[in-house]
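Summary for the steering committee. The consortium agreed at its last meeting that each partner would contribute one worked example illustrating the joint modelling workflow. Our contribution is presented below. We chose a case with several input lines so that the handling of multiple components could be demonstrated. No manual editing was applied between input and output; the record is shown as generated.
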Amino acid sequence: MNVVQAVKLYITKMTEESGPGMKVILMDKETTSIVSMVFSQSEILQKEVYLFERIDSHSKWDNMKHMKCIVFIRPTPENISLLLRELRYPKYGVYFIYFSNVISKADIKTLAECDEQETVREVQEVFADYLAVDRHLFSFNIVGCLQGRSWNAQHLQRCAQGLLALLLSVKRRAVVRYEAASEPCARLAERVRDLLRREAVLIDNNIPFNGEIPTPQLLIVDRRDDPVTPLLSQWTYQAMVHELLTINNNRVSLAHVPEVPKDMKEVVLSSEQDEFYAKNLYSNFGEIGQTMKSLMDEFQKKAKSQQKVESIADMKNFVETYPLFKKMSGTVTKHVTVVGELSACVSRHNLLEVSELEQEISSQSDHSKHLQRLKNLLTNEAVRQHDAAKLVALYALRYEKHASNALPALIEALKTRGAPEHLLKSVVNLLEYGGAHARQSDLFGLQDAVKITKRLFKGLNGVENIYTQHTPLLKDTLEDLIKGKLRENLYPTLGGEDGPYGRRPQDIIVFIVGGATYEEALCVHQINQAYPGVRVVLGGTAIHNSTSFFEEVKSAMQGVHRTHTRHIRNV
Amino acid sequence: MATANDDEILEGFLCPICKADLKSASQLTSHFESLHSEEQDVLRSLKEIFGKAKKIILNNDDSDLKETFDRALKFSYQEHRWLDEEQVIGVSRSSTDYLKAVRSARLERYATETNKLLIRLDKLVCNMPAEPNQRKQHEQEVVPWLDGSSVKLCPNCAKAFNLTRRKHHCRLCGSILCHDCSTFLDINVARAIVDPSAPRTSQPDHEITEKNGLRLCEHCFNLIELRKQVQESRNAKTVLVTAYEQMRSLMDQARPDVAMYEKMCQSLFDGETTYNLTDVNKMRGRIGKLAEGIDLLSKQIAAFPAEPGTRQARLQTAIRHAAAHYIKEDLISLRKLPTEAQIEEVRQQRYERAEKQIQMERERMERQRQRKEEIAGPSASRVDTRQDDEDSPLLEQMNIIREYIKEARRDMKYEEVAILEANLKELKKEYHLQKLSNKS
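What follows is the complete predicted structure of the assembly.
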């Protein structure tokens, strides 16, 4: 179940079926992202695909009859009408059409009627209908999937289609389980079940039923059950880059960084094309610096040079003085720039201190101490307003029911330090979105005797790293599922030919309505390592950092009356 | 609420034995050392944990540089072992047959009509008289014109005919239409349509009028235009396409050559004698030539005239990019050849190894023979008389194969060289064995 590979195989199939010759690929906005997530431009060029065109671009008509056109689009009504226009006045010699999802017979009929010049050679449905971020991670890039707590109809449809496509692309017959307390999860689960039923023939013909292995499970959970994870500062490389610099379709913009080299204005971070990145995706920040330093030391030994490499600035100098190193180490140079920027952010905004408190609030319990430290940090000017709001939001979630909860005072403190209105609202919104009333699980481990014991043990073991104390709720959920202990009344099952009761699933696809995070991706990666034979793929409506998560919450709480935060009068 | 407060006291640096809160890691450790010295195991584990935590936080990890270098750049596949399952391509569904069925049913209707029109068009443009009146007569002979007496309105735009809006006829179907609704087909273009082998005329820059064009109704014009388009796309093979195809064929040639080169190189490094250095050098030269050819053609393609910013221009630069990338990645970055001395060294080592093996083999046989002699006595010392007769065909065959190898080398068919060399080796072995057995 490697989702990157699944998409790659589909795209390779497209380029191969059209045979030799000069090719152009005609895509829409979403499929462009889907392709660019898994292939670099030079890789595609080697497949004889020389032009990349958008179906919705209004450019001049050219006679390009010597080219073969691969059309890869989502089957939306707009795309189909654009395609009809293209076929009426075809620019290219022949057309190979691939839809990224199910298309109706009626639409194919209209296509046939427009194809008067008989230029269409193939019409197919391939199911590469999701952004494959990593081998075990996918997303639909939808920020704000819920509006006023319920699904935006379009987004619901998109997610259901995408999940259907995912199951078909990795050839799994799955049953659907969902979080019972969440209405959006139930809606999505039903929709996916309906789509699966509708395509029963396709599935029966292509995915043989295998009674040997337990039925794969598609588990749909709600972000509202764990609003804490997206708020935390991250220290593993990928997650950290996303939190501080924002990864968008595997691309990171460094344009705002002063004196950044021209070719580094936008860098691609893809574990498929970049070995250093693939290797260090989940390394923590310190380890990466160490690795880079050792690489440079090693090189210096060879170059017999005496230049000191002690700081990130030294590393930058080093790269500039040794073009050979640049060549040898390939992408490492890029990462020196990225890590340089990260380290600048960390020291500029006091992130170490902020993160330490975040971690403690999320995984320990000491109200008075936390409140004191939080108040101190709020008076520190180096701390960004955004981080201050994040801390207050964490406090609000963690000590929501605490007898001496001081949230109004903290909000007042935010106001005093000049935090903008929208951040104040975010804090309240977040509490309304993911407060205790909205959560099905015991997020902070307050009720469960087992969890309390676990924490006792944790205290005993000491803290391995104060910046990575927190483990996402998803880990517990997945471990329960793998051990066959996930409770049926909390996570009921829909459809499927045999009940999964008592059988421990090996193939799991878990989808988070409201967005996943890279911290959870790391957690899934660790689970895949820790349980041989178990394969987990994680997906989300989006991959969030704290900024985009605030957006998500804002959209979800739009027009919702405050029922659980009415006591906070100063916002 | 109560639980939240209860578990507060369970946190901090608790001593696992007496549950005292020691406030810091070092204090806990020392407390433990002094009061619970009997629990050595726990102490060790505590120390380990703190050491580890320190390491992670402070990064004072001084591991071997070489190791980190490898760890950073070389991907350990073990990490992703769960993904090693072979992934097959996902489900897909083709609707091509359905599309074709719908399309052909629809186009068949058009096809008969278009063919009828083409026959008429052919008759019209062949022997068309230049003189207007004669031409009109010729046109009406081919296509009978509709009687216009009862037609009051233009069937297309529904405007009334009068003095200024005269009635006209479509020259292909004979129907009536007004001037505004008619379209004109250039006669030269029409000729090209009915006879594709006729020389192509460039697009006329003058306006097509009644005089140099055929008046057609929209319907007929569209059908004819469609036919023209299809024809054009079939004949779209331009200079660019030819150059491109040449380039691709060079690439196709280069691919097996590169694989062969790698194999030959490896064999040299292994000290085998199948190929010699000149062979491999020649191969390298050939790949170099192919690379040059590809480079030249791709430059040509990039230099074809195209307006900047158009698709054509982008296409040409993209092809050039792809070719340059291919040459750089696959053709130029070939492995460096070993020097004569290196080869000699490897061969020497190999030879010595082989020699040793032969020596051992010989000794073994010697011993066996002695043992046999002891058992069988003097009767075994019979001389084989057929020795000379056996020798000569083997030698002859070896010579023939040597000839073949020379030929194959000349033609640079290195696959064959490899096979023949292998044969030769076998023969040599056979020959040696025979000699040995003869001696004994």
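Residues 102-234 of chain B form a domain with the Herpes Virus-1 fold (CATH 3.30.40.10). The longest strand of chain B covers residues 183-186.
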